Amino acid sequence: MQSNLYPSTHTRCCFSWNSDKPQIPTPKILKHKLKTSIISPAVSTSLKTSLNFGEEKFNKQQEETTLPFYLPVSVRKSDSHSRYIWDGKDLKLVSVDGNSFSISDFDSNFEDTVHKLVRICVSAIRNFFLPREVSRNYLEYVKWKFVHRVSSSALQVLATQAMLRAIGIGNSRSLPLAAALNWVLKDGLGRLCRCIYTASLASSFDTNLKRVRFCTSVLFSLSIGVELLTPVFPQYFLMLASIANIAKQISLACYLATSTAVHRSFAVADNLGEVSAKGQIQTVCFDNLGLTLAATLNILSANNPRLQAGLIYAMYPVFSVLDLFGIYQGLKHVHLQTLTKDRLKIIISTWIQQGFVPSPEEVSKQEGIGLSWSRGREPWSIRIGCLNPRRCTAKLSAMTMQSLNSEDFYFLSPESLTSELERNQEYGVLLSLREGADTIAVIRGILHASYVCKGIETCGSSSAVLKQWFNLVEDGKRLTVQNLSFLYEQMLSLGWACKNILLSTQEQARYSFITE
Asked: Which residues form the Protein root UVB sensitive/RUS domain (predicted)?
């Protein structure tokens, strides 16, 4: 090798072989008449020494190791794991996970080859249905989604069959034009109500995602029951079918509106598109299985019309229970990282009482999914919104607003939960946010209100709380200043999405500070 690795002409590397003894190719320098830069002899000597050392090390390893041998580099893909191997002449990439086979393997070891083929098929099915990188709770969610979608699809097939019988399809006395008109009318009314519902409850899809989705699933099951009544009361077909379709359209709107948030909770590598695509594949396959199940039941009872007519009503409660149980269990494995007022209250309450920030999985276990909508607020619970003069304690609220300055982005005030005529007055805590309040201000406000609620527990009666209100607010403010930054850091470290806080339409109300 020349003393200058880059002479005055452009160079390139090629390899020559010694036919007597297999060895690693030695670099040669070929010259071409192109201008290049020059480096010092010292650098050239150092590089030459490094290349020779690497070649000697490889040749020594080749002599000491029985050929072929594995190189310390592997390639891992979603469905395979391979490693580079050197056989003395060629560099090869071979499988090391047991998922490769050839036809000749059947002759040598049939049983092992069959097991290997089964592993390959299982791996291919998994890659077809499941994304590559998802959270660990995703597989449990898919299991219950299977139960939910199969039952739901079978229910729809049975309901459609009942409705076709109600409008007289297959009956010589049926009127095709009237049947088609009724069908179009019930679809049109359902889509109109779907638009109204979606517009009126848009923010609830974020703040109460699990509860809204489960409630609309219950509504879907009830709509199937209404459709099953159409053969019994064919004269009321349009009314019954329209009511059922309105409920189904509302359920569909909720499903579409919440699917993105559910998929995002599983996309740990920001692969939302892949998770959504796999979700659609699962839905299609599971729905087809449900359709096949319902069709099989109809075929088995085809020779007995009375049994076929009664089968619909016999299978409805079974499929409905499976459908609701599947969606309920599936939602329990959806761990949302976004922040709402309710999740913040759970986080901060755990932080104050037990001294740690719960993870999204821990908070998910405490979130409500069922139908238990609270009819009223508990005493000294926290509400985000604007001050209502009819419910506030006038003097305390006026003094609180009088003390505000331009640096405050929220204020706390007691508000009455009962009417003035009731003897036992109950109160709650109002958190009113100012326009321009960011995420940190909202977290600070809820943390401050939570400290005030903790101090209220030691006061006793409501009248005692009102007398000590400003002292409670000052003590809570001091604790908030001390602990806010550490709480925020802990939330970020556990994967909570602290960039935004999702609030309902009522909670998004803000006040403006006027300087005179």
From this structure: 121-354
